[in-house]
Records
---
Amino acid sequence: QFGGAGDFCRVQNERWEQCAQETLDEFLRRGEGADEAKLELDSRVTANNGALVSVVAEGEAYTGGAHGEKFRICRTVDLAAGREFSLDDIFADAGWRDFADARMKELAESGAEEYADLWERPSAEQLGADCFYIKGNKIVFWFPPYALSYYRKGFVEFEFALKDFVGYLSDDFKIAAKI
């Protein structure tokens, strides 16, 4: 629950509740008649500076078959201004995409274990509007299972210091993030 008075916090809480209900309804629909069904969901606040709050909800739904289906829901909100940020909202223009592509390519080719077995090159063009979250003073771009690698690898994340992107960030985001 987002604390505080005002319509924005109420609307955000209603959106989370609606999202949770839709997830549960879809799980129940898909699991109807299944011999075994299981739904797990966990959430965490990854950033909270008093104005900017970033929340990640992650789960897995199993309704039969070889494995469950992993899912993730991310929201980054500016409580002070009463707005939610999409990926494009945090950047001033599309120039960030080329910079992010170069940085993700660098990490993917670094030989680090978390980037082994990628069959697809990461690209900012592949990122959905909510495929990011803020983690302290960093931004994390993430790709769902199968987007870049096999399912068992799970979500593939690329983490960068926000200061590296400072020249690309929108003024509204800089104010909320206190940069």
---
Amino acid sequence: NLVQILNQINNQNLIENYKAQILKYNILAGKEFRKNSYYKKALVFYKKGLSTILNKKIITSEIQENFENLIEAAELSYTNDDEKYLMKLIKIGVRNAKTNMDKVNLLEIKLRNEFSHNLLSQSLQTGVQCANLLNFRLGKNPTKLTVITEYFKTKLYWSRLNKKRLSDIPESHDPTLIKL
């Protein structure tokens, strides 16, 4: 059984060469538990896997390579109400994110956590932080017109960016695919 093997491996101090494999297999086990709605068990394996890179002093490249896993672990932390681990993931993730969108994805989980704990002032600050990362500039006391104007400017910016990304995709010659 994969889970029993991983539990044995996780309880031993392994040579550094095997850490990447341990990370991979723990994340795979976590994904399998998550897929079957065993969220607590899934978080255990995500924690064990990510601990191989989160406990290092210099982690930037490894975090970036595993950013989706970090986001999934943050979601599981939120679902399991493990606020301490969630905040650790968000702090590390925001510091090591490649793009503002990656930061926003993590901060959105933080915002939901703050809102679910009725921390409205903190969730508002997190929301403003997300808006600023998305170039949605509100200022201290925005008027309704300012909010609407910035909303449309941001929406236009992101739609152009998405169209550009779509235009960068090579054309398919498969006749069974629908063209955009």
---
Amino acid sequence: KLDDRPHAHYGGWKTVWVISHGSVRTLLEIIEHIFRFTKADKNIGNIPLKQQDRAIRSYSSTHFKALSMLPGELDGEDLGPRLQSVLSAIGEVSRKYLMKKTTNQLEWYETLSIERLDRKKLDQKAQRILEELTKYGLLLDEGITFSRADFGLCQRYDMNKIFTPAFRTTYRVRNHIYL
């Protein structure tokens, strides 16, 4: 059972830097949120890891919930909830990978990346969703990279790491979802 495993905390400089995904703006927003959420003042020496964790999860969840307000529509449906549901599906699959058992020991796998192994053109609706996901930085287009599933090159997309605390997954890219 996943809840029986040791609880990972989102906190510390390295973790905050990594989940900000290289964005200085996001980095500063997370740091500000940690200070506001924990009600830390300027004289604080350090903020305990558990408090940082709660603040970072709060930040991530708030940003995930805000996706429902993204403007636009697709086939008469609001675009925000549609993109939110796609990202949620990726997050849920990532979470399921954490439960994967490969031996008698429980091995935790993570995934944030999607590799397109086919070279087929997406239908118009799927292409628009993919474009909107990348336009808003929800999926990051990593370009053509070496495939982990096959010899050769493929298109790879990474879920923005800022959402990993909301899904209780890791920001590490070890396994990929192959499509």
---
Amino acid sequence: AGLLACLYGSNTNNKVLKIDLSYNSLKTEDILEVGKLLRTNPKLQMFNISGNKLEMRGIVELGLTINCAKQIIQLGLADMNINSDACPQIFNTIFIEELILDDNPIGVIGLMMFAKTITVNNTIKKLSLKNTNLEDMSIGLIVSWLNKNLTLKEIHLEENKINEDGISNFSILMGMKTE
């Protein structure tokens, strides 16, 4: 909490554009301070909180905080143990351009819960879902996103459980030629 208090205190001029609090062992109570920081800095564009494993109560607080911070363009939530139970808490109505969710056990169920957000989000351009336990059955959902969300230009699916059949189905559904 000392680091957060320092950031919050030094942020009275609202000139901070990027904050990286990744891998700081933040606790649920720290998220309340993060909320203050995000709500009082209208110029903050990049926020990375990756690697801070939170309990469900912290995830709920984080979701509320993120949904209030409409100015954020890039959000890093990698390696936070966000699973299918946590997805509805975090991804209610976020409107950002770049979202990094790598190394979270989201899985197919979490992806389905995240689907509403991605289909109504008209700002997201880059989504990283590396190593998130996605499988071949995720492909149809992802393709439906790409058909509904015209702003999403880049999606990273490396290090998942998507095999050649899944890649082939993706190509077919997207109307691409495969070799």
